[in-house]
Amino acid sequence: MAFLNLYRGKLKQNFGFLKELFESNDISWGVVSKLFCGNRAYLKELIDLGVREIHDSRISNLAKVKEINPDVQTVYIKPPSKRNMEKMVRYADVSLNSELTTIKWISEEAVKQKRKHKIIIMVETGDLREGVMGDHLIDFYAAIFELPNIEVIGLGTNLNCLNGVMPSSDKLIQLSLYKQIIELKFNKKIPWVSAGTSVTIPLMLHQQLPKGVNHFRVGETLYFGIDLFEEKVIDGMNGDVFELFAEIIEMQEKPLLPSGSLAANPQGEVIEIDESLYGKSSFRAILDIGLLDVDPKHLIPEDGEFEILGASSDMIILNLGINAKKYKVGDLVKFNLKYMGALGIMNSSYVDKKISD
């Protein structure tokens, strides 16, 4: 049976690297846990590291965090929906918002629950996902800063999440200027400029982060050690906190090309025939994992001597060539994972999740 393994020691090393980095730059930060899809054991690993601020896009996951340790500050990192408002206010201490109507609903619910709810106003800086347009920001803040049971603790932004727009010093300086303008106009203190995500870390590593940015929301770099500018693992971090193990359930030598009349497969793909491969064969392995669990394009084979030929809903097919390493039925094949690959695996109830030192 396929399983995912989390290496506790490697996660701890990555966490320590980032903790030292942020402390040396006097920056607050929280860990984005949405990759874990609410897995209680994995969430506990984060909390046991000393994480005291956890961000997630699923309210049920934040509820589990509060069950494990109610003192952890929880942050809901997408605009809340009206139908989830009661649970969101109950389980999230902070939320990211960009709609006036929504914040009024939050205020009403916070009054009902006799809670103070903290808000980070998201500002549009070019990637065109969530965010208030800069020209409207002053009026937006004026409409919400006196709402009961609401405390605005920051201005934030998301970059590289939809259209791939990368962070830059200019964009982040602009966000810091918005904060200064609001503080001067309304005589109110806004503690955070929450402009940092994993993709912004390289700016800090190269001393290009504007001083006004003082809060980060980090997931991918913690789990994969990745520099998202250069697409490589940062020196001193681990890129293999997670490994996927899949079992070979068939191993046979077969022709390289299918035979018969071809039509689209269930994924809508029509296979192109390379006629130079007629009459040739190779060893093919079938793994006990498929598209229901992960898109193969997000898998990185640890053994570079085979290729992924394709997948169906429950199986992945490998081309092992001459099978120089003598793989056989029952053997485990290891893969490293890209972020979206790990997310797919974590969201699959068909793949076991394990932890080792």
From TrEMBL:
Please report the name of this protein according to its UniProt entry: Putative amino acid racemase
Required co-factors = pyridoxal 5'-phosphate
Q: Which residue ranges does the record assign to the Alanine racemase N-terminal domain?
A: 11-225
Q: Which organism is it from?
A: Belliella baltica (strain DSM 15883 / CIP 108006 / LMG 21964 / BA134)
Tell me which InterPro entries the record gives: Ala_racemase, Ala_racemase_N, PLP-binding_barrel
Q: Enumerate the GO terms in the molecular function aspect.
A: alanine racemase activity; pyridoxal phosphate binding
Q: Is Isomerase there in the keyword field?
A: yes
**Which UniProt keywords are present, listed alphabetically?**
Isomerase, Pyridoxal phosphate
Ribonucleoprotein is among the record's keywords: no
Alphabetical GO CC annotations of the entry are:
cytosol
Which residues lie in coiled coils?
Answer: none
